[in-house]
Structures are given as C-alpha cells and as structure tokens.
C-alpha cells in the first residue's frame, strides 16, 4: 500500500500516467500486458516505454513478469492514482490529504473539494484485493461474473455505492455523493462521531433516529444489508448511515433476512450498551408494513 498518495501523485509524470492507462486498458485482454502493446497504445517507442516502466516499477505501481514474455500489470495503488487524476482533471477534487479511515474493503482520505471549497472525503474501494472469493459470495452484483478482475470488482462496487447514494440522498441521512471514477467516490464529510465509539445522552432518541433512516431507505426500496454501530455516525441533529455497496433491494431473495439482521444488529447494540429494549420482529414488521403501503 502506498505510504503517501499525495506525494506519489504529484511526482508521477503525464507520460507515466499514460503508461498506467495503457496497462489498465490492455488488462482487459491480457493477464500480463506485453510491452509492445503498451508502446503501441502510448505511441512511445519501446526504449522510452521501457524506461518509464522501470520508473513505475521502482515506485511499486506495476508488476513485471518475464516468465514467458515481458509483460506488466498495475498494482491496486496505481488504480488509486488513475482515479484521483480523473477526479482532479474534472475539478471534483483539488487536493488529497491524510488517510482517515481503513475498512475491510475500503480506504478513506480527507480531500479538498474542487467544485466547492468545502472539505470532502475520497473513498477508495478495494474489493478483491485481499479476499476476492469472499467478496464474490457477499456481493450480489458480482456473484455471476466468473472471470471478473479485481479492477472491475472494485470499480463496480464504487459505482454501485455512488448510484445508491444518489438515490437515497437527501431523503435518507447519508453522505452527499459528489463524484466518482474507477474505484473512488467523492462525498461529503460525515457529521459527528462513530456510534460504536460514542456515548450518547439520549439513546432512545438516537435509536428512533436510526430506525427512521432505515425506514426511509426501505420506502425507497433499499436495504443496507450490513448495518451496525460501525457504519453509523451520530451528531446532535441525528445520524448518518454510510458504507452502502452491499445494499439489496426488496426483490432480493434474502431481503427480509437482511433487513431483520440490520434491525437486530442495531437493537442488540442499544440493548447491550444502553439497556434499551425493543422487539426485533415488531420493528421489522413495522418497517415492512410501511413499505407494503407504498
């Protein structure tokens, strides 16, 4: 993993970016992209292409294979840079800051928004980097794609989450989606603190606020699918729910089960930490009843 994305981004030349794009493009057709294909795409001669590839290898942005022929693949970190370059070029981001969050399948950085002067965050999806088989099982949008690469898996996850945030915002309290490219999403900074690490003074009120957002999402036909105290932020005005790439619709065969699990996770947390008791079936049935009336 890149230690310093901002510095690496600033120290990557346009020609180096062009070579990375060439490898990314040709990976659709090759397990290891031949140097001749890279040179043909970039219009650089073989010697210059070789020099650039050597530099990119030193930066740990590409893999090199010489087992049967000279071929290349990009590292996940190079995909970060390609996404960031596209976001900068179209004005969605002016600068990227520090790493502020690491999840099982994502990394989140602070950033300066380009379309507005406000602070934003960039979420980079990393589906497939460590446990692609598990990701395939968990994610309905990739389970039928037998030959999906980690590049495409992370790209699909980002687009999927961006699209559902566009559907939910602003009716549901979620981060505002601003832009996305490849495996990256630009979104607003969440307000408050993670529920898991916060002691609230009015737990009953916060529980009602969270369930209200679950209901609003359900009325739009969306179930989070992996809701817990770890992807809920709380603030004096209410809450925000994040991390939506695993969402399902009510047409999913396990929709009721996933909604029940979301509700159970939240209620169990409030019961254990605050001794707030709610009946899981009653809450779930209430949400389902509202949706059936729509």
Query: Strand content of the residues, in percent?
Result: 15-25%
CATH class call of the largest domain: Alpha Beta
Q: How many strands appear in the DSSP assignment?
A: 13
**What would the principal axes of the Cα set say about the shape?**
elongated
**How do the SSEs run, as a string of H and E?**
HHEHHEEHEEEHHEEEHEEEEHH
Name the average pLDDT.
Answer: 90
How far apart the termini lie comes to: 46 Å
Radius of gyration: 22 Å
Number of domains: 3
Largest sheet: 5 strands, antiparallel
Walkthrough of the structure:
There is one protein chain. The relative contact order is 0.09. α2 packs across α3. Helix content is 44%, strand content 20%. The chain folds into three domains: 70 residues, Winged helix-like DNA-binding domain superfamily/Winged helix DNA-binding domain (Arc Repressor Mutant, subunit A); 111 residues, Phosphorylase Kinase, domain 1, CATH 3.30.200.20; 100 residues, Transferase(Phosphotransferase) domain 1 (Transferase(Phosphotransferase), domain 1), CATH 1.10.510. The chain has ten helices and 13 strands. A hairpin with a 2-residue loop joins β7 and β8. The protein is α+β, with helices and mostly antiparallel strands.
